[in-house]
Design a protein that fits this description.
Strand order of the largest sheet of chain A: 2-1-3-4-5
CATH topology of the largest domain in chain B: Rossmann fold
CATH architecture of chain A: 3-Layer(aba) Sandwich
Helix content of chain B: 25-40%
Number of domains of chain A: 1
CATH class of the largest domain in chain B: Alpha Beta
Helix content of chain A: 10-25%
Structural class of chain A: alpha/beta
Number of helices of chain B: 11
Order of helices and strands of chain B: HEHEHEHEHEHEEHEHHEHH
Number of strands of chain B: 9
Oligomer: heterodimer
Shape of chain B: globular
Order of helices and strands of chain A: HEHEHEHEEEE
Strand order of the largest sheet of chain B: 7-6-5-8-9
CATH class of chain A: Alpha Beta
Distance between the termini of chain B: 23 Å
Strand content of chain A: 25-35%
Shape of chain A: globular
Radius of gyration of chain A: 16 Å
């Protein structure tokens, strides 16, 4: 499947900020009383913060509940790779029980991060539902998990690593780097 | 020199002493513990990292707090835990330490947590085990108690985040204390500019200054303007020798009272590794007072032990 996927250059990538507003538009109809946003570190957390700002401006709510996840303790490759040097505490300060969770990741790839994130969420409580939102679906999933809402599909071959970065001015940008298996970042999978 | 704690890539393989560990690894453990601290507050206080692994608590010497917190830490990581009180098992029938260890390896143990009255016991086991097995020193003789040193620094960091700007006093029986040794190594490695020890000459090791500490024999001088007071347990069994006159006399000179604590900075914190001798090294009003962080130390001990086990079982931090 990935054989048909393209090899792209960073300059061919769409503008992340444009994708972000598209994502906000798509998300809006999903928000209801009992919705909470959860971002997966790092890119998903940046996106969540920006989405919160965009959505709270548009909608008269009393603030949307939100939290962050670092799935390091739930990954399926811990036995192979150990822990990362930088892991950040997960922070879910609201009650997960019966919430409609919007789970936000920057790049959807294999689905393994999503699986880990769902396992972690269930350790906080039993949500009413989980909706997976990603800025980009890069193709290559390995599990029966797929994002329900994406701003773009950019199918890439496995030799390329797509990630979201935060620039000095706080804006977000997509970036392509060669995939290096030994030092392969554990996010975005 | 070959450091048995690290593998050839410099990753942590065993935790035997703070001495010999680079600052980077100490910080990795402390930062990882930060993430584990939150796990305790969840509906389900468990993460699946050590699922399917077996952790053996080998306690050749009594301990309640350390053994219990190691056990809880392993369970919160989803490991299977076996706690052996070896004093009451085969050891008393004459089995050697390494035979005990070999038998547990034959039962597919993955990690050993070792407490022993002899210095170097954990080293001995670490040298003996095959590469996939990890050893954690939970206190060996007078030598080292690395997780206690780490949890103490973790506690200090929680209350006084800028370690580079602290004055810390360690008070009491430094001579017999593996805790003090581990604390001193951890604090100096992490860049605490002023570590003091306060004790009578008889309870200080020879040439203690070489560990990078300032020596005081007088509480009133030593406690002046410190940010952290770390009390040590006065081991009752030492009383019989000529080292000290009496518990009452010791309390008068080196016991921490509200009055003496007032010499430290107003926001100074008071720590004790436990078990406490109230009225010997610490007054009850201080132990239970506003500045005491003795119980938070116990809580943080779980996060530190989770971090150490998770880092070891994962083959170090990548």
């Amino acid at each position: 499947m990935t054989a048909n996927n393209k090899h792209l250059d960073s300059s061919e990538l769409p503008n992340a900020e444009v994708l972000l507003s598209l994502l906000a538009q798509k998300l809006k109809p999903l928000l209801r009383q009992n919705t909470a946003l959860v971002g997966i570190h790092s890119g998903g957390v940046w996106l969540m913060q920006k989405l919160l700002a965009l959505l709270e401006n548009d909608i008269v709510t009393h603030g949307i509940e939100h939290g962050t996840l670092d799935v390091a303790f739930y990954r399926d490759d811990y036995a192979l790779r150990g822990l990362k040097a930088k892991n950040r505490p997960s922070q879910i300060s609201f009650d997960v029980e019966n919430k409609h969770i919007i789970l936000i990741d920057d790049v959807f790839y294999t689905g393994r991060t999503t699986r880990a994130a769902m396992n972690e969420l269930f350790d906080y409580g039993r949500p009413a539902s989980i909706t997976l939102v990603a800025l980009v679906n890069r193709g290559g999933r390995e599990l029966p998990i797929a994002p329900q809402i994406v701003a773009a599909d950019i199918l890439l071959n496995a030799s390329q690593h797509l990630q979201l970065t935060q620039l000095a001015d706080g804006s977000l940008a997509l970036e392509l780097t060669p995939q290096n298996n030994s030092a392969r970042p554990q996010e975005h999978e | 020199m070959n450091n048995p704690q690290l593998d050839t890539d410099g990753h942590l393989r065993h935790l035997l002493s703070i001495e010999g560990l680079p600052k980077k690894i100490l910080n990795q453990i402390l930062d990882t513990a930060e993430s584990f601290a939150g796990v305790t507050e969840r509906e389900i206080k468990k993460v699946p990292l050590l699922r399917g692994k077996t952790v053996c608590n080998l306690f050749f010497e009594n301990s309640t707090r350390t053994r219990t917190t190691f056990e809880i830490a392993a369970k919160r990581l989803s490991a299977d835990v076996i706690s052996l009180n070896v004093g009451t098992s085969s050891q008393s029938k004459g089995e050697t330490i390494l035979d005990t260890v070999d038998n547990l390896i034959a039962m597919h143990a993955d990690m050993f947590v070792v407490r022993h009255a002899q210095s170097g016991a954990a080293h001995l086991i670490a040298k003996h085990v095959p590469p996939h097995i990890h050893v954690i020193n939970a206190g060996d003789g007078r030598h080292s108690h690395p997780t206690q040193g780490l949890l103490d620094v973790f506690t200090i960091r929680k209350y006084k985040p800028d370690l580079h700007n602290l004055r810390i006093a360690i008070v009491g029986d430094v001579l017999h204390s593996r805790v003090a040794r581990s604390e001193i190594h951890a604090l100096t490695t992490l860049g605490v500019p002023e570590v003091r020890v306060i004790a009578p000459k008889t309870l200080l090791p020879a040439q203690v200054e070489k560990m990078g500490v300032h020596v005081y024999h007088d509480m009133n001088e030593g406690l002046k303007d410190v940010d952290v007071v770390m009390m040590l347990r006065l081991q009752n069994e030492r009383m019989s020798g000529a080292m000290l006159p009496s518990a009452q006399e010791y309390f008068k000179t080196y016991g921490l009272t509200q009055e003496k604590l007032a010499l430290a900075k107003p926001d100074a914190i008071v720590m004790h590794p436990g078990p406490m001798n109230r009225g010997v090294e610490i007054d009850s009003s201080v132990a239970d007072g506003k500045q005491s962080v003795i119980l938070p130390q116990v809580t943080y001990g779980i996060a530190i032990r989770m971090a150490v086990m998770a880092i070891l079982a994962g083959g170090g931090v990548q």
